[in-house]
Amino acid sequence: LHLQAGKTGFWNVEVTGLDTVKALKGAKLTIGADDIKTAATFKADYLQETAGVKRLEAAKRTVSFSGDLAKDFAGLEPASYKKTDDAAVRTVLAWDEQYLYAAWDVKDSTPWVNGATDPAQMYIGGDTVDLQLGTDEKAAKDRAAAVAGDLRLSIGNCQGKPVAVLFRAVSATRKPKTFSSGVVKSYTMDFVDAVADAKAEVKTQPGKGYLVEAAIPWTALGVTPAAGLVLRGDFGATHGDLAGQRTRLRTFWSNQHTGIVDDAVFELQMEPKNWGELTLQ
Asked: Which end of the chain is more exposed for a tag (fewer CB within 10 A), N or C?
């Protein structure tokens, strides 16, 4: 066997000894479920490190919803993110003194289907859109778990109506709900409730996707808005299975640790250390 190799110079090489090559006695390599989870964690850590700290600015304006993202948020560049081309998401934010406005444009072949009958379970029941915020500016940015001021807002289709549900892991105002999974038997959120004053409108395109436009009262979020305010946060979407009964894909703008499904607790928990920065213009 001869070959030629090199870059700035070329070498003619003769490979010898192939007649003495022998197969090495090997053993079986077993890759179990725990190994797959470990590998997924390594991948998520790498993606998170690569992503760095993401930043998005929310323009100050009052938004009226028409079901046309380009018109309603004219002049604003949505944040685009995806895990797969057929489940890509675009999100744009705006604000005024009363509301935080958010829109999610989601690709989905079975749009806006969710099998949950309890609004608090929509995040594991199929299609939802999501907003997470840290409202305490003094909280440590590298905190692994949610603290007071951290919240998650999940908007989904509950029995034909768009419903926004607020989750707070730590809250002085209590309306607790306990969740469990095969790994964690008991995980309690201090506050879980629908946001009655939130406005959400949905436009679907069969076989293609959906658009959710929402106006969320600052009072429900516990935030006093002001130009220049910087909040840690994230946003994303969940995709359900073909039957629309169970979440099968979680895609977020900043947090890359979203590979786990089939675990109601891990899918619910917030990871503030992986959030980006949202600035009110």
From this structure: N
Pairing of strands 161-168, 177-179: unpaired
Distance CA 250, CA 189 (A): 20
User: What digits encode the pLDDT tens for the residues 92-125?
Assistant: 999 999 999 999 999 999 999 999 999 999 999 9
Supply φ then ψ for residue 134, to 5 degrees.
Answer: -110, 110
> What does pTM read for this prediction?
0.86
Identify whether the C-beta of residue 197 lies closer than 8 Å to the C-beta of residue 207.
no
Residues of the chain falling short of pLDDT 70: none
Helices (H), the chain: 33-51, 69-72, 218-221
| CA 191 from centre of chain | 21
Dihedral, CA atoms, 111, 115, 116, 121, nearest 10 degrees?
A: -70
CA distance 156 to 51: 27
Dihedral over Cα of 258, 264, 268, 271: its sign:
negative
Kindly give, in sequence order, each residue whose CB lies less than 8 Å from that of residue 263, ignoring residues fewer than 6 positions away: 181, 182, 183, 184
Interior/surface letters 149-174, b for 16+ CB within 10 angstroms, e for the rest: bbbbbbbbbbeeebbbbbbbbebeee
Between CA 19 and CA 105 the distance in angstroms is 62
94-113 as b/e, with b when 16 or more CB fall inside 10 Å? bbeeebbbbbbbbbbebbbb
